[in-house]
Amino acid sequence: MANKFSSYLKKDSLEYNVYKAEERLSAQLGKGINEAKYTSSYLPTVISHLRTIIDENPDLTNEEINTILFKEIDDYAKTVYENAYVFGEYLEYLCCQYLSTHPEKYKEISEKLFTSTMDFENIGFENCKTFDEYLLLYTYSRKRDLFHQIFDGYGEALPPTPDNYKNFDNLLKNDIRLHSKFYFEEYFSLPEVSSVLASDEPLAKKRAKIKEYSTWYRNPRDRKDFELYTNIFLYGSYQYVLSDEEHIASSMRKDLARAVSRTVEQLDSLGHLEDYMVDFVFEMCRMEYPEFANSICENNFPSKEFVEDLVGKSKDLSALYSSVDTMSEKDKARVLAKRSYLNRVLASKKEEIRLHLSKDKLKSALGENFLISSKNLSLESLLALNSFWANRYAKELSLYSQAMFAVHKFDLIDKIRDSKSTFVPVENLQKMLIQMDTFYFQATQFLSKKQEAVKNLRDSDETEYEDGDVEEKILRFSYTPFIKSVSRRFGAEEYASYFDSQLPHSKHDIKEDANWYIRLYNPIFSSYLMKDEMLNVLLLSIGNSNSENFPNAGIILENHQADSTIANHGASAFIPYFPVIGIDAGLSFPVRIHIQKHTLIDFLKSFNGNAMLPIYEGSSDFHDPYKSNSIIASSLIMPLTDKTRALFKKGITKSEFEPSNSPNYHPHARFVSHLAFNSSKKVPAHLATINNSKKKSKATFVRRYINLETGYIYELVNGEFVKVVPKHISKTSKGDDEHGI
């Protein structure tokens, strides 16, 4: 149907959307990512789940089973919306942090409120373009909160208007005796305090008398509230900001902890968690640090013998991956047979690992209660942890949606009932993926419009909420308009006719297919939006505090030349369309997430006024020793336990530069030294920059930055970006000759 004249087709026509679907799938295949094969490998997991439902409920009709499946899809969507508040919460947290240490800025922003043209009642942080706009919105919201807390009982005398919110401090001062008497009588049963607040006595005497009053409150929370609001009446709304950071951090920690915990549970229900655990243990054993994997295994597994055998077989396999093109047919056959044998042995090792896993240990380490109460886990580290698991969830939801669409498209429920084969050829799955993706553009448009309307609909009659905190984050709407629209644009008969020629043994009802697709795609669409929001939040933390929260975070460069510029090739030659952000966040492994380059640049410029981003150092420490041009995958990431911290501390003492014949030599010492740096912030020798300007030299870590638009590399000197001279970033200066990911 699609052809080389596709540019002349209408963008809402079936022909054009089929063409674009084929183009997208072709691009994926060009990168070596065969989605159909992934779908084929995951489909048995879904079929097994369906078989369980049918065996336990043999009398259910297909419609009733579909209802169960739609309910499950809805549950997976709810997990996505656990992160609905993260972006706004962290922006508030960041603004509060900044203003708490810059009182003069709060005064400046308070004055700007009166002249700003921003519509504070109808915008959110996602609409702001500069940090000052974030500060304006945050300050306005806090003055509005205070106005409602103190003046809500005044009725028409002090109506709740934007001008009155902005003018809160002046309104409070105008008649502090009346306002304080009214407020403290209402909430603290202590109208006498108004006489102290309104008196002409020195400030020190007022504070002493208020402190005396505060001792009347036995409950620490009541005493803390009393002290806060007396300070607000004494010093103004800025006192509210000073108390706000703790409240925001507590609320955000609960939201992030619940999001991580629920995501991990859902990934387990999707059948992925055990595979992540197997891969993690396997990699730690290959790196000869099995003690790091012991925290999620039982019976003191892995044993020394298991590790030695695994490492030996991995080395043998790696040695066989030299070119076989120049070999004789006999030698080539021998090498290929040996490769096949070793791959089977390593696969059996993974199955042995599976027998010793403890999901309970992992879920405990990633459980809501532990994440909330952990003193060793900073809010920023928890944010990075959530970003990793949310990113995992978005990817697995895509795979799940493809498998579920196959259930619908190939009548697998009936085949399970009739004990028929549920095998679907990869070729048919590939055609099905094109059929699915034909709805992509129309669904994206539909959901984007719904997202834009969310803020306006939240409190209207068109919303439907259920009980519970999670449900309050979910806006429900009908899919009927989408189904009607796409049916009209594509044409029911034309749709059925085209796909009958592609998949002749399947039913092609456009309304049914569109209904399944939009249900499956909605959580995926939302998950990627929220992933981008979380990445933006992490970028703010990296850039706004000069990376104080993360000792090593930024873009992972790929084979950057030893020069301060990208020569004549331009930034695009070395910064891919989807660059990788690496973050050492004090967790069990660095967090690595892809983001679109133009999205990254746009966000940085809106916030900082430039496209400067720190460079992640030491990525080569995680190169896979058994696979060329590959890295060790971050199969799962956990908070660090005291035991793991102790292991890291022990591991960092192993020198990164010991010769191979030394008794202290370890082939992967840089790997564990970097992990220890990730945990303790003690700079490992191979990443250190020696500062000789002081009497006693010490290892320091000098951050580098790259301008994503020009490719120039800089260091920050006295608050100014200075280009790095070529010799300073030679390939040997940081021990990081490659930045692969």
Tell me what you see in this structure.
It is a single chain. With 741 residues, the protein is mainly α. The chain has 28 helices and nine strands. The protein has a four-stranded antiparallel β-sheet with strand order 4-7-8-9. It has a three-stranded antiparallel β-sheet with strand order 1-2-3. The chain has a two-stranded antiparallel sheet with strand order 5-6. A hairpin with a 2-residue loop joins β8 and β9. α13 packs parallel to α19 (379-409), α19 (379-409) packs across α21 and α22 (440-457) packs across α25. Residues 457-471, 560-573 and 727-741 have low confidence and may be disordered.
Protein traits:
single chain, 741 residues, four-stranded antiparallel β-sheet, 28 helices, globular
Please specify the SSE layout and strand pairing:
Layout: H1 14-30, H2 35-56, H3 62-80, H4 86-100, H5 103-112, H6 131-151, H7 162-166, H8 168-174, H9 176-188, H10 193-198, H11 203-214, H12 220-235, H13 238-269, H14 273-286, H15 304-319, H16 329-354, H17 359-365, H18 368-373, H19 379-409, H20 412-417, H21 426-437, H22 440-457, H23 480-490, H24 492-502, H25 510-544, E1 552-556, E2 580-584, E3 591-594, H26 597-608, E4 612-614, H27 642-651, H28 669-680, E5 689-691, E6 698-700, E7 704-707, E8 713-717, E9 720-723
Antiparallel strand pairs: 1-2, 2-3, 4-7, 5-6, 7-8, 8-9
